[in-house]
Amino acid sequence: MFRTSADLAKPATLMPGYFEFPGHPPLMEEALMEEAPMAVMTQRTLFRNTSIVLPQEVRVGSLLVENGKILDIDAGSTAAADEVVDGSGLHLMPGVIDDQVHFREPGLTHKEDLSCASHACAAGGVTAFLEMPNTKPPAVTLEGVRQKEHLAADKSLVHYGFYIGATPDNVDELAHASDVPGIKIFIGSSTGNLLVDSQEALEPIFAETSLPICAHCEDEATVRANAQRLKGTSNVADHSKIRDERAALIATRRAIDLAMRHQHRFHVLHVSTAAELPLIANHAPYVTAEVCLHHLFFNVDDYPRLGSRIQMNPSIKTAADNAGLWGGLLDGTIQVIATDHAPHTLEEKQRPYPESPSGLPAVENSLALMLDQVSAGRCSINLVAAWMCDAPARIWGIVGKGRIEVGYDADLVLVNLDESRTIRDEEQLTKSRWSPWHGQTLTGWPVATYLLGHRVWSRDHGFDENHRGSKLSFDHSRGGFWNTPNGIGVASRSA
Description:
CATH class of the largest domain: Alpha Beta
Shape: globular
Radius of gyration: 22 Å
Low-confidence stretches: 1-26, 28-40
Largest sheet: 11 strands, mixed
Strand content: 15-25%
Mean pLDDT: 91
Structural class: alpha/beta
CATH superfamily of the largest domain: Metal-dependent hydrolases
């Protein structure tokens, strides 16, 4: 039952749980009950005395959740609630939306699966993911997407959405697809029928469909020519010479030209070079872009130390590209930070190049990596929330997600900006059980993750294995990132 503010001033019987965090006072989560205990379904949760990360500021206060929605961001610390979470000394931010992951199910589940990956998400502060179509079989029909949604409904601890993949001959299927985040095109660097690199195939995808499009941009002809020139190499560092700056530039320029000519919303995935930034800039309302953590933090000088652990498509580039991409984030040319989480087993990664596959895991450390940059003074926590939460929701029309605002879904993460931890392979939750950041100590970590106000993970209590996420709701009529400066908004009353 609910207690009024007056009731809360009276002694009450509590069912306390305590979150113990190094260097931080206990985080207390209380279920307020009558003196005679009784089963109560939680309807209201109060996050008390915490630093709330809003779009333009950080405000110390209390946030009230009712039935999974944010009811009040200026609630008093004694507001009536069924649960109270004391967030003193912590920050409360929106849950991360990772708009580019490869969770390998179906068909490649020895590398990763929806259960393991979604647990890694929850522990990393990721409350929703958008998964790519290159599974086995690939999701190139709406029925294929629905099959993956069915799997996720049974297995995923967090919210989910699945792109539909473009092929040279499925334009009709793409044109009729709905209730998905968008269309994914592999302009290079794919296998099977997912490679779409001819102009004849690309033109109708942009001309005859309405969903937003995203693409992996590497020019296949350039990659093949470079590979032939370096044929016989076993040096993994040559991967960045094969998948070079020119390959990225050609494909990105081509895709942006298509988007602008057809006035079609287009999202450039995993920008890897500073040279692409002038191509991406100043193309509102049609073009947005993302950068991935490995392209921000790794460069070719790291190959001797990390080898194939950082072998990726697109390849990592130079330290100058690292700096340029950071600049693109800070000046607004790039809107999104994602992971391109794409695990392989360590046994597979340790094969001699070029037999070693490209891809790495990142979802459970992505937020911590960026909070560490907050601690280092490189960016604000508001910017992290903008890049990892708000922007993905706006680009893909994810209703009610991405920011802390009245009426939005209470997908939330409590983080401790003062906590330092070291990433260890053996502690990773991803099925592959390794990280390219193994051995790196970060300052700033998630301590509890909530979906619709329900705690699905905490450092103290672990996972709620009975909980499942839900399919995200997409509303592309809201116009994408450039047309939603005040957020994507909430579901309409008629929805």
